[in-house]
Design brief:
The protein has 141 residues and is mainly alpha-helical. The chain has helices spanning 5-17, 22-34, 77-90, 95-100, 105-108, 117-140, and strands at 57-64, 67-74.
């Protein structure tokens, strides 16, 4: 049984709470980004690019047996870390679970306040896009 969205958020909050210094948290984000599997070139399309991100972010979704699977990538290291967090939390869940998810980890780890306004907008845009995919798949059902 896979972990719930809230359990996964709890793991991330715990992982980030180890560090007090934001430089260390950025380093963790960069590590997470570097551990993200590269996105297949065929998914790096205009339609998978997320509007509202300063750096380029691609997000691809697959739907199989009632579960949504996300893959993503960015050309900026910190943003790639954020993509890694979102994919890690939301991928592998049903559309309804994704739509119902309250992504409180973003505030809990202090991510929003430590991102530039453009990156913060990008984060919101990524979450919105993931919810849009979930919504589309839930209607398809």
């Amino acid at each position: 049984m896979s972990q719930s969205i809230n359990e996964l958020q709890g793991n991330i909050i715990e992982e980030f709470s180890v560090f007090d210094d934001w430089m260390d948290k950025y380093a963790l984000l960069i590590d997470l980004g570097n551990s993200l599997p590269p996105l297949d070139e065929k998914y790096k399309t205009e339609s998978n690019l997320i509007e509202g991100c300063q750096s380029r972010v691609w997000l691809h979704a697959d739907y199989k047996d009632g579960i949504v699977y996300f893959q993503g990538e960015s050309d900026a290291v910190i943003v790639k870390g954020i993509v890694s967090l979102l994919v890690g939390i939301l991928s592998g869940h049903t559309p309804q679970e994704i739509l119902d998810a309250d992504l409180y980890f973003i505030d809990k780890i202090g991510l929003k306040e430590h991102l530039s306004p453009t990156r913060s907008n990008g984060l919101v845009a990524m979450v919105k896009q993931m919810r849009m995919y979930a919504l589309a798949y839930s209607i398809k059902n």
